Amino acid sequence: MAADARDLLPEVERERLRSLVAADLTTADVLHADDYELVTPTGTVLTKSQYLASIGAGQLRYVTFEPVSPIAVRVVPGAAVLRYQAHIVIAEGEHTADFVCWHTDYYELRAQQWQAVWSQATRIP
Asked: Alpha-carbon distance 9 to 29, whole Å?
């Protein structure tokens, strides 16, 4: 099971990132747990509803969100942690930011679906 998860989760994470860039809220909703929280590179904490609502409203728009390093995966029964460097280009209103960050995600297997529960991005200077 752990080996299967180590192989599967990098693709689940890439699918999650693609859904955020495409503002595909149907897919994003499935891949984020109801109690999901994001800690942004600026230290802001967003709930799932806040995060997806800002993407849906176009207030937060990912132009690019892609891994630029291998996705490392640590698995324990029913949970996993992913860590990688990501290139992010994000538009918020009139402002655009282009940066690389360390990205860490905590996933849980819920009802046979891997879902992101926590994410944190730390900007690399």
From this structure: 17
